[in-house]
# Entry
Amino acid sequence: MLTLHHLNNSRSQKIVWLLEELELDYRLECYQRDPETLLGPPELKRLHTLGKAPVLEDEGGVVLGESGAIVDYVLDRHGGGRLSIDPADPRRARFLECLYLAVSGGMNPIMIKVYCSAFGLKECAMDQAASAELAKVLCYIEELLGSGEYLLGEDFTVADIQMSFIPELATAIGCAGEHPVIRHWQQRIYARPGFHRAIARGGQYDFAAPV
# Structure
């Protein structure tokens, strides 16, 4: 059985959502951030050198960190083609781009702005550059959505789960802008039963908390 080590107010919430959408049998081990330092507990460090969540355990001694890698692993080993795009489908390239944008180019400007705020560097050149980059990412998400229901058209995939954090965190740091297409997409994906099961098991993510 899969075991997911989940930290409150962390990106491991997306993995809980993925597992619920796939209706997989898994065990959830929940951890809480230190209320003062906001860091995860030392138990996570004993699981994985990075000491961060999520951490996924599977049979055969698999212990895996990093949400993007966990998504790839779960889809390959347990997805059965669900929530993915077939390699022969012309949309496959865009699907892969979305997965990596969600954990790299889309998240990087958010993290830069979080650090700038934490160290009293709001509105410095780096902070302003990050704002401009984040604005481009949000415009691209709207472009991808177009007139479709989801990022890949009419098919809900894990790309929607992964990418959902970008506009939410942008809102939390005051950089969301006006993107009605994104807002309607969020309403659709958050209405899914799998999302509500994930919240029931893993807790509600406080997007004002650390990322």
Remarks:
- The beta strands are 2-7, 26-31, 55-58, 62-65.
- The domain at 92-192 is CATH 1.20.1050.10 (Glutathione S-transferase Yfyf (Class Pi); Chain A, domain 2).
- The mean pLDDT is 93.
